[in-house]
């Protein structure tokens, strides 16, 4: 049962309603969305409870529902959500190209990547400072030093930054730099992290778990929205199947299916899905054609030498060719490429003083 | 080991070579491709056998290889294969729309479907006379009566016909009508059927098994090509995964991956993959963008009442909208829609005398 | 709708009922089971049809059902089916060990295998004369010569024979030798073959398709039973998943699940599922514990040199150890190992005159 | 490259070696196992580095390896690990039955469950105080109040406790109660949590991710062992496949396969895998037969009314029948059921003063 409080009601009234629910052995979660407090109660509601709650002071409406897709579903909001990432819209008529290296390695690599992305028509710069790795002995990312390098490139190129947060303990550090947070496939079901991000209010890109159904993916988004953060971008990145020719099987049907159920924007990561450079271009074009709101592309100035996922990154020059192809295809379907915010990339980067990385 | 005989060599010479191979305990398969006899021998070749075979009369070349993708691989033929289906090319710059009902039901349905497909810009008419069904109690197709209805619509509309052959016993009947044969997902590994089709020389569309790897799919094609029939069109139709929102998961990465390995054309069946009308349009557009050579679309004049796979077919009017969208997208990428052969659809169908169906 | 005819009714009466059904635009399939003719009609039955058919002469009962598991379900027969394979029961308290080489190669190999299996406590001898292969260039089996070698070993050891039939064209040949036919995973959906086997009346082992759901597997069995052949043994042999450590993932839950739905016996093939010798023993024991009615084990006197699936076969000595372990486990659960028919293996094989293989 | 320090060497020496590695641009992780410090360095080792590190003071050995299964592999330890859980051994000849409700609900439920488990022959009591849920609106567990109820039942029955930890923030609380921690399928790749548990030194049961390969599962264990905690028990709980008849597909092959690669004990959770009460017994028996070291069974005194996963729990009476069956099967294979520690369950529980739950 969900109780939506009146926008102007005093917080104490919500507390009274919560107490009334608890008195009936219901658990109560607090949420906030579109300026209204929501009380989400779980447990089996005794008969007639909704009728008793509805007339309480401050209550706007009571939804006696079991529907789990409370905030992510089209029933809640018919119009498409557009997430504003420091001036770059995700969702709506524009198609966003997010690009950059899998892992931040050093200043030269990030500078080359950032300029390459900006010149190639990318609108948001990606780079991992904290890397989720299958093996404890693999490179785990530069951490805070990596974040500083990302901030530096935003300063120089004006591109907004997306970077992954692995852990609640790192969230404050990441929030200092990220214009949009990234939750990776391994963390899609990490409720603690999702809730903390929900409370942060920062836009977030939520990757689909590699074996998550569409419903589970939307329920993970629901963890974030139910904390009052409506700015969630979904990201399809391939699911696990028996086919060995690609690292994962990119599920473009899911993009089309999600758009029917949910108002949230969806982008596609063909680089991690395929794990092969040669399939990135055709899959990115297919993502645009299927109706995705953007793509996230692995780009590295020296792809073969990358510390993480070597062999799946495009060179910035290849990215430029891809965005040109995307532009033509989008035009034919009445859409356009999203552009970075106006101040992006004034000139060559100045030399900045940071700790040597 | 594969022995390619000289194009002009007498058949007896091939027989001599085969005998020489058998004398070494090798099994010998006979094949013919591009005008040359091939002897494909299996078993472990004794050391030096290739050297002893090479100088025999009539031998053009000996390939001492274990490579199983003998004829389907790019190593055999670099240029893309274009399959001519009664005047409609599959492969090359044109993109083909194959459309029609899943099952042939009666004359009115076929007439409405065929005219709808022709007017909507479809180039090949599909319809199943023999239906592979999971349950023995489901409608199994009209059989020969269904074939006659297909032939009738070809006569009227000029559209080439594709129809499925389930069984070697029906092959002769189907060959009388089909401009291109269809092998369904359940028969992809039916070696007997594949070989018989290989010997028939008729173009064939080979659907991917619902749990077949790309390699197994190409090896199935190899059964057909190794019998001397080079006119194979591959068809991706979804693979089985854990995701319940779609009937199968359409694997568009496989289309791009296959095109790198093989010279054979690949088309996509979004209708059977998704099992949902609302995903057909976005997936067909994605298929065009990913580089497929065409799509096969379920179309029915009365979709809800279809005897087979009701609820996944488009209405002819929706097909017309889809081909218009496809045309725009293809133009943007330098390609065009394939057109049916010149004589297609002179006017309204004449009344034809056939057994009442 | 299924019409069951009286056991003593004349065949003409069934014909009259069929005509009555066809007059209502229903398709009619003929079947025979437990001595009664069944007319299975498909299509949408007009309202009141069952009531009009029920009083017709010769009609015993009319089932107005959509239930597809007509003959395989527990609703049709509560008690477990026991299939008699030339004196060896499959189903019931005994647990059967079927063993032998994947492919019949030559007389020495078959003789060593057959004696090894008999001495190790196997009750049925397997061996493939016709081999379904992914590649057209792999060894395809000895065909009829292989069948003769199997017959020879039955003569010598008394063990009943199981061998695969790939094709209706080979069925008559295979029926001369096989005490129980085998349908492989690639042919589970081959309706033509299933129906022909149904008409043959010979016991049959039906392997699960590698991507078939339990329901689809039982519907495939239904094709055989609906033709009047009740002697179907199911065989779980692994399904396709993402896990690369085993060739397939053996689905022992399916064994337990099938036994709740169906009265048919179920055996397990751990050799093909795992594709690894070292997992055969633990998986065979698990199969016995989960309630399977037997196992089918790949055995070869020279496992490393096998022409087909080398590296997954046990040596006969290892089979003997396994059956000893199985015996102990079965005893603990109130079951026993099935024994071969009384006359099995009189002494060393006599020298038999057959064509040199 | 892994540097193992001498057991008696001063910590400063390890620091010197770490500095030497960092001077060569290697990243250095610290670990401790079997009383020895390990320095695990990642990055590409320059030629000759191992030779320069080996003679440094305090260095016992240098392994110049890329092998990721450093501590979990049989190469590191040939003998099976036996994990001591407050007097109950997991691994070795005894087979452990872990049982209890999915979620701790209230005192009466836990008291009934704990006594039922103890009387039925269970050796460890499970119960979830923190529940990972797909939906934010599902019951999320009682948290600390649930932990207190578990502690209370340990006091009364003497059964060691296993309970899940979802989050590093809850770890200290959980450590006060849990004799063995549980990491759930959704957290298998949560490196932060795995490392913290590694540092805690408490035994831990690590469930396989629902789409994790065996290798990824062992690498997750490696995160724990590389922090110096050798007491890891693996738990197979079903993987995601296309089969809808069971919630997951229990992969018993993985149990056998893991035992060949790793020395860690493996138990099986048939309740969550199947999601169906009727399959728990056969799958538990199969787990014992395949060589697992135990099972974890969902038990609830009122299964239909459970707040979490209702319909998959056994009644304590059914558990007693299952352990009797397991005992017989284990005896036949030379094994026995593990018994709870001597002081378990003195009599009826005393009334304990705790906050009302």
TrEMBL record, chains A, B, C, D:
Gene3D superfamilies: Aldolase class I (3.20.20.70), Phospho-2-dehydro-3-deoxyheptonate aldolase, domain 1 (3.30.70.1140)
GO MF annotation: an example: transferase activity
Residues annotated as domain DAHP synthetase I/KDSA: 88-323
GO biological process: aromatic amino acid family biosynthetic process
Alphabetical list of InterPro entries matching this protein: Aldolase_TIM (IPR013785), Class-I_DAHP_synthase (IPR052899), DAHP1/KDSA (IPR006218), DAHP_syn_2 (IPR006268)
Keywords in alphabetical order: Transferase
Pfam family name, one: DAHP_synth_1
Protein name listed in UniProt: Phospho-2-dehydro-3-deoxyheptonate aldolase
Source species: Embleya hyalina
Gene: aroF_2
